[in-house]
Amino acid sequence: MVKKEIVSATKLKKEIEEAKVELLSRNKKLKLSVKTEAKKKVDKKKAEAKKKVDKKKAEAKKKVEAKQKEEEAKKKEEEAKKKEEEAKRTYEEDLEEQLTEDEIKNFAIDKTDMDKLVNRVTEMIAGYATKGILQNILWRKLKLSSRDGSRLALKLERMGNITREKILENGRWTYLLLIKKIPISTKSIENAPCLVCPVEKKCSTDGEISPKTCVYIEDWVLLELKTKKRHETD
Ligand code: SF4
Known about the structure:
Number of helices: 7
CATH topology of the largest domain: Arc Repressor Mutant, subunit A
Strand order of the largest sheet: 1-3-2
Radius of gyration: 52 Å
Number of domains: 3
Largest sheet: 3 strands, antiparallel
Bound molecules: iron/sulfur cluster
């Protein structure tokens, strides 16, 4: 009877030992499983964080690239604008930078009566009234070089006789010359009958003796017109 109890106790001890081993093994597996899960979660979070960082980096890169492109486009636009401005630049604008105001106003052509030339050119421009005339056409008519013509146009403008309008003609920038003020020439009145008229003192616009009814004035005006026309056709 005692022997049987001893066997049972030994067996029980063994079973307990086996149970302990089993429990230990399960615990180990459980711990491993928990660790693996935790690691997985950490890795997932890390991956998500990395993804976010990568996304932000990509966005920042895109922004930098977009800014670079924008700056390049702006630079190109400025260069194109500069080229366009340079193409618009005229010989006269260069002259205005190079010459002083006195050099422009006192411009003279060798062996040329400048007063006479100024009057002639001004009268010619006046003949085109509000339509004006292209400067190169005028210089051709006057057989002037464009060097002298450009300087003369600047002089006439400074004198207040003409205005210059910058225009694009056949792909080239040039100037349309328009009359502003016709200079009074003493020559135009040197043959006027009033200068030697014996009744000049009694003459008035509303009086009995008046330019409105004066035959001398009428004859003189008609003669002047005929002379002017003849000069224009010469
Ligand atoms: S308008 Fe005739 S009348 Fe009068 S001052 Fe002249 S020329 Fe003489």
